[in-house]
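INFO  loader      accepted 1 record
INFO  loader      residues=188
INFO  predictor   begin
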Amino acid sequence: MSLKDKEKWNAKYGSTAGLDGREPSQWLVDHADLLNGRGKALDIAMGEGRNALFAASLGYDVWGVDISEVGISRAEALARENNLTIHTQVADLDHYNIEGNTYDLILCFYFLNRRLFEGICKGLKPGGILIFETFTVDYLKYSGFKREWVLEKNELREAFSELEILDYQEVDEPENEIASASLVARKE
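INFO  predictor   done
INFO  writer      dumping tokens
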């Protein structure tokens, strides 16, 4: 990521009341029964913190990382508003290293940096859960995204094949102009 990326995301978060809304991802909510709320969680590219706050509400000690100071500031304000605690870090995710064997839960929603895949696997403790969702190649027909910003078919499943895949789906919804892959996996 670059200074240009940081400026872009700061401007996006600064120009709206809530870029992604306050509700957590439906994929995360649908799999909350797998989350015991104990231990440490990492939300990669957390933005305004909607998923980090949901994890904190379940009892996780949440660490959120993002390139945008504006997004982080909004996440911290929402945490205070909801009497929740989250730890935040402004970081360039192109150079971010995930500490090994540290997290009971790792979240990554609508952000793709393939360099982090290995670190995500290593960062999970045994029994740790990964919940990941982002755009697929089919999303290109609805957006001006670059191909390197989207997953190929089954790429997410293959990237985390060393984990136990608990749930996986790929959807293409022309009526909503969305195409994504969603994964829930556990480190054995």
